[in-house]
Specification:
Layout (H helix, E strand, L loop, with lengths): L1 H11 L7 E3 L2 E3 L5 E3 L6 E4 L1 H9 L6 E6 L8 H4 L4 E4 L2 E2 L1 H6 L4 E4 L4 H10 L4 E3 L5 H15 L2 H21 L5 E9 L2 E4 L4 H8 L2 E3 L9 E3 L2 H7 L3 E4 L6 H7 L7 H4 L3 E3 L2 H4 L6 H12 L4
Parallel strand pairs: 4-5, 4-8, 5-6, 8-9, 10-12, 10-14, 14-15
Antiparallel strand pairs: 1-2, 2-3, 6-7, 10-11, 11-13
Helix pairs in contact: 6-7, 7-13
């Protein structure tokens, strides 16, 4: 429950910036700015950033990473061998300083604990946070520059964008309703301005949790299920099986999703981790929902 509360705190944080490149500076979602150039000793304390570094071939720039307790970091056979500076939620400032990095990439949940000290030691840092596909691709471009792999980053971006275009072209608009859950007890979903909501939008599925205008998460009630009657329900994060969802929420048996066997569970690193590899997860979701009536 503590992990879920921490996760909720993170996604409920209202951002006033967006990732951008400005005056040869990379600006993160919190307004921090770092010089847009190649670095040589980077501590990557965010799993999605680690993944992107490997996807573009920039892993030789990694001095150390931070670990997660729930999900593996792709590619696990390689990342498990990397030196650690602690957990993504609580990186060790002592270890970071001892490694003398020229750049640190942080997870939003761990950043508040060490930002002040990084500033004191004049160590530049970038907080990895993206809430839509455009930001995922832009930060990939930025990481390409950080690692000297700009061309490889551009190739990856173009490849994944083309796959998304093909999905968007082929997906039919069938007036489906759906929801993506990250907790089954209570049944809590992602609403607007989240990657799962972007996925549903791409697949032309109305996110029933978007009705919660002022929050990025929402507890789904019995009344809401009966009123909206979702056609598709997707579980992720700590939800490991369809049975987990149904056993904790018997009222779902009244939904179209249950009646038509359209409740699915996906690994969170495939549909939540904000990297270009999320397109592979979208393909998987598309394959199982394309025949939903």
């Amino acid at each position: 429950m503590k992990k879920i509360i921490l996760f909720l705190f993170c996604i409920l944080n209202i951002l006033t910036y967006s990732i951008k490149i400005e005056n040869n500076m990379a600006v993160d979602n919190y307004g921090n700015k770092v010089a847009l150039k190649e670095y040589n000793k980077i501590i990557v304390a965010d799993p999605s950033a680690v993944e992107i570094f490997y996807l573009i071939g920039g892993e030789n720039k990694i001095s150390a990473i931070a670990r997660t307790k729930i999900n593996k970091i792709y590619p696990e056979d390689k990342t498990k061998k990397l030196q650690s500076v602690g957990a993504i939620t609580k990186p060790s400032i002592e270890k970071i300083i001892s490694l003398k990095p020229d750049l640190v990439i942080l997870n939003p949940m761990g950043a508040p604990k060490i930002e002040t000290l990084l500033k004191e030691y004049k160590i530049p840092y970038f907080i990895d946070r993206s809430v839509n596909f455009d930001e995922i691709f832009l930060k990939t471009k930025i990481y390409g520059i950080f690692t000297g792999k700009e061309k490889e980053a551009e190739n990856l971006i173009n490849e994944k964008k083309q796959v998304m275009k093909e999905i968007e072209k082929n997906v039919e608009d069938r007036n489906l309703k759906g929801v993506v859950l990250y907790s089954s007890s209570p049944m809590t979903s992602f609403s607007k301005n989240t990657i799962p909501s972007e996925i549903l939008k791409l697949l032309k599925i109305k996110n029933i949790a978007s009705a919660f205008e002022n929050s990025k998460s929402a507890i789904i009630s019995t009344d809401m299920i009966l009123k909206e009657n979702p056609d598709v329900i997707i579980g992720t994060m700590k939800i490991k099986s369809v049975d987990d969802i149904i056993m904790n929420n018997e009222f779902l048996k009244y939904s179209n999703a249950y009646k038509n066997n359209n409740i699915y569970v996906f690994e969170s690193d495939k549909i939540l981790r904000a990297t270009p590899r999320i397109v592979d997860g979208i393909e998987e979701v598309y394959e199982v929902i394309k025949n939903v009536k």
